[in-house]
Amino acid sequence: MIRTVRIIKAIHAVLFVLGSALLVGLLYEVISGSITALTWAAVFVFIVEGIILLSWGCRCPLTVYAENRGATSGQVTDIFLPKWLADRVFIIYGGLFAVALVILILRLIQTKPS
Questions:
Q1: Inter-axis angle of helices 2-32 and 37-55, nearest 10
Q2: Which residues does 80 contact at the CB level (< 8 Å), separation at least 6?
Q3: What pLDDT score was predicted for residue 34?
Q4: By residue range, what is the domain housing residue 47?
Q5: pLDDT at 24
Q6: Number of domains in the chain
């Protein structure tokens, strides 16, 4: 049982790090104005992630799965971040994604031919 929880948390941690890197890449691309396939892939991934989180009551399914397997906490953000920040990661990441979307829309409007 402990091994299963460790595997779930390891997968969860890898996905968290990859998602964080993807968010940084998205912000960089929209701020710099270099809209690429990565930009659209990131937008797609974060929209899908948002739908999944909303359908699970704003909880990551891997967190729930780890807790169902016996973990006292299925969160992995507390491994990397202070507790007060880990508890607000959805709000912060959601806000950064919203900012990236606004900038992306503004970039697209600016490049639209007249």
A1: 130
A2: 13, 16, 17, 86
A3: 92
A4: 2-111
A5: 97
A6: 1
Q: Which two tokens stand for residue 81?
A: 């971040």
Q: Return the closest-CA partner of residue 23 out of 54, 6, 53, 46.
A: 46
Which among 19, 99, 7 is positioned nearest to 62, based on CA atoms? 7
Q: What is the pLDDT of residues 22-77, one digit of tens each?
A: 999 999 999 999 999 999 999 999 999 999 999 999 888 888 888 888 777 666 66
* Helix residue ranges per DSSP H, 1-114: 2-32, 37-55, 61-68, 77-80, 83-86, 89-111
Long-range CB pairs of 9-15, under 8 A, 24+ apart, other chains included:
9/66, 9/71, 9/74, 9/76, 9/79, 11/62, 12/60, 12/62, 12/63, 12/66, 12/74, 12/76, 13/76, 13/79, 13/80, 15/62
How far is CA 95 from each of CA 15, 27, 34, 81, rounded to the nearest angstrom?
19, 12, 21, 18
CA distances from 91 to 28, 30, 98, 108, 114 (A): 20, 20, 10, 26, 37
